[in-house]
């Protein structure tokens, strides 16, 4: 992660990170077909098919470049892409040492010695709007769990009880630290 953050074009670092699904979406733009629809009967070939594709676009990547890549990957002259909403590229937020220090303190209050490595969160749609308005935006999550215990956006979405209460303490520490109290 450190090598990749120092040089996002480091192919070896990217290859290592790509082996871990929990890191894949924080290293590049990702597009996933989230809904599929085709055909009118189980025993007939479909005349058309529709896929809803959700793209999490990396900061500073042009929406047009993502759309062009989807056409390239689709490799079908009949392919049509329709944006469901206006899509706008947004800049990355620079590392803020005051925020980084508050997060480090909060993490170490519960988990001493854990290394803190800033990364791009693959969520944070609201943050994009704030960055577009010129306000650097930082996502901070206080939930600590193993990758296999992460259930975001699934039918079984949930948070473990101890993680929930730990996150409350985490946020209290950060907000108190940043408020100067």
Explain briefly what this protein structure is.
With 181 residues, this protein is mostly helical. 38% of the residues lie in helices and 9% in strands.
Overall pLDDT metric? 85
Number of strands: 2
Low-confidence stretches: none
Number of helices: 7
Overall tally of domains: 2
Structure description:
The chain is mostly helical. It folds into 2 domains: 2-74, no CATH class; 97-179, DNA polymerase, domain 1 (Orthogonal Bundle). It contains 7 helices and 2 strands. It has a two-stranded antiparallel sheet. Helix 5 crosses helix 7. The mean pLDDT is 85.
Entry keywords:
mainly alpha; 9% strand
Layout of helices and strands:
Elements: H1 2-6, H2 11-17, H3 21-24, E1 30-38, E2 49-56, H4 63-74, H5 97-110, H6 125-132, H7 161-179
Antiparallel strand pairs: 1-2
Helix pairs in contact: 5-7
């Amino acid at each position: 992660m450190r090598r990749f953050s120092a040089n996002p074009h480091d192919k070896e670092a990217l290859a290592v990170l790509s082996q871990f699904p929990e890191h894949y979406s924080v290293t590049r733009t990702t597009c996933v077909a989230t809904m599929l629809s085709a055909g009118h009967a189980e025993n007939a070939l479909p005349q058309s098919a529709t896929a809803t594709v959700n793209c999490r676009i990396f900061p500073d990547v042009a929406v047009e470049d993502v759309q062009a890549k989807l056409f390239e990957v689709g490799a079908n002259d009949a392919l049509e892409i329709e944006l469901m909403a206006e899509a706008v590229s947004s800049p990355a937020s620079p590392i803020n040492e005051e925020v980084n220090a508050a997060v480090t303190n909060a993490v170490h209050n519960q988990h001493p010695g854990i290394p803190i490595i800033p990364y791009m969160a693959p969520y944070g749609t609201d943050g994009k709007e704030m960055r577009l308005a010129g306000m650097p935006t930082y996502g901070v999550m206080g939930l600590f769990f193993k990758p296999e215990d992460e259930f975001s956006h699934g039918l079984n979405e949930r948070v473990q009880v101890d993680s929930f209460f730990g996150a409350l303490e985490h946020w209290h520490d950060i907000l108190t630290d940043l408020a100067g109290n």
